[in-house]
């Protein structure tokens, strides 16, 4: 739940009651990211058209038309949603501009949010009637949210560098290397720990301590339950343990 918005910076409170500060993406950067994606869609459509014409030249006109229609339909309706799921809230345009879609609580989006926000883009924001309304909503909304964001419960934020650098200071070149070395953690547990360590310094001190205590207790319990809690870890404080 968002609790404060000041000059493009949004202060979010996660379901764990952790205050997370994020920088909101403005209308200009979002529009530029969309333009990049739209150009890629246009190139994709041209490729499909060329393929249809080449197939039709071989005497498969009806089949080529049907396949071409299905390809364009799938590309147009699922391009954004598919990329945002595969790239954790980013499309090529958003990645180029350093933007990412998140749930309001700061969590990654899933298929429901990706489909809702992007289907409404096609139905409302790009329609002749809905486009002016959608633009007005986005321009005047304090978080630059469009109608699809409101319906899906999402926000678009600017990426902040530093997560990988934080891990590097701990002896890990990247997240993949860290995952290989921390063999006692599941993928879900590692992602939880990685996200906290990469973003811990941006939390409010009280929130950081609460979350640190909760994550340490959870990981201790899970590791102990499967006999993977090493003796050297048992007497460490929460910060040292994590």
Write the layout of secondary structure elements.
Layout: E1 2-6, E2 9-13, E3 19-24, H1 27-56, H2 61-86, H3 92-97, E4 99-103, H4 111-125, H5 130-140, H6 147-152, E5 154-158, H7 163-169, H8 175-181, H9 187-199, H10 205-225, H11 238-241
What does this structure look like?
With 242 residues, this protein is an alpha+beta fold. Helix content is 60%, strand content 11%. It contains 11 helices and 5 strands; from the N terminus they run E-E-E-H-H-H-E-H-H-H-E-H-H-H-H-H. It has a 5-stranded antiparallel β-sheet with strand order 1-2-3-5-4. Strand 2 and strand 3 (19-24) form a beta hairpin. Helix 9 packs antiparallel against helix 10. The radius of gyration is 22 Å and the shape is elongated. The two termini are 27 Å apart. Residues 1-9, 15-19 and 162-183 have low confidence and may be disordered.
Q: Which features does this protein show?
A:
elongated, single chain, 5-stranded antiparallel beta sheet, disordered N terminus, 11% strand, alpha+beta
Compact summary:
60% of the residues lie in helices and 11% in strands.
Run of helices and strands: EEEHHHEHHHEHHHHH
Estimated helix fraction: 55-70%
**Structural class, please?**
alpha+beta
Distance between the termini: 27 Å
Report strand order across the widest sheet.
1-2-3-5-4
For the secondary structure, the number of strands is 5
Largest sheet: 5 strands, antiparallel
Mean pLDDT across the residues is: 75
């Amino acid at each position: 739940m968002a609790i404060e918005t000041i000059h493009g910076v949004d202060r979010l409170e996660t379901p764990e009651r952790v205050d997370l500060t994020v920088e909101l993406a403005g209308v200009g950067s979002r529009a530029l990211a969309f333009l990049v994606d739209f150009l890629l869609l246009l190139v994709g459509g041209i490729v499909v058209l060329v393929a249809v014409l080449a197939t039709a030249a071989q005497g498969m006109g009806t089949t080529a038309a049907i396949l071409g229609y299905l390809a364009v339909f799938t590309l147009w309706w699922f391009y954004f949603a598919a990329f945002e799921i595969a790239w954790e809230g980013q499309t090529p345009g958003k990645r180029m501009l350093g933007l990412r879609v998140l749930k309001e609580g700061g969590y990654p989006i899933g298929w429901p949010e990706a489909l809702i926000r992007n289907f409404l883009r096609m139905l409302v924001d790009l329609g002749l009637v809905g486009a002016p309304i959608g633009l007005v909503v986005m321009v005047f909304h304090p978080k630059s949210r469009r109608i699809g964001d409101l319906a899906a419960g999402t926000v678009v934020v600017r990426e902040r560098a530093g997560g990988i650098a934080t891990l590097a200071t701990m002896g890990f070149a990247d997240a993949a290397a860290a995952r290989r070395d921390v063999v006692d953690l599941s993928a879900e547990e590692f992602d939880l720990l990685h996200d906290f360590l990469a973003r811990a310094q941006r939390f409010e001190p009280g929130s950081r301590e609460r979350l640190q205590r909760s994550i340490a207790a959870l990981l201790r319990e899970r590791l102990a339950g499967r006999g993977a809690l090493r003796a050297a870890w048992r007497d460490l404080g929460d910060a040292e343990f994590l």
